[in-house]
Input
Amino acid sequence: MTQNPIIAFFTWWNEAMANPDQLTEENFARFFTSDARIYVNNNLRASCPAEMVPHYAAIAARCEAVAMVLPVEHELASETLAFVHCFTRVTEKGVTRDDEAMACAELRAGKIARFLVAPMAA
Output
């Protein structure tokens, strides 16, 4: 089985969200192509690694804690596509919850070129 680039990203993301100084364009470029797009519920959130920095920094700033629950529930990867069923543990305004989502990535040369996240209603 191909290593899942989404899992590699989530592993780093957990560290970076706990230490937002790691949220840099260079670090995102380790996982994403230069023209990568991130969509959440079909809404474009970032269109390159530089735009990922303020997007994720805003999440880190509003949450007391946020982390992907690893290992993920289910995952699958090939050379061109990756999928995960995952949970994000969020503590916001003193309340902790687990947000469930499905995520799909289109891959190019081992990096995420398009990342689609579909949160699941509670």
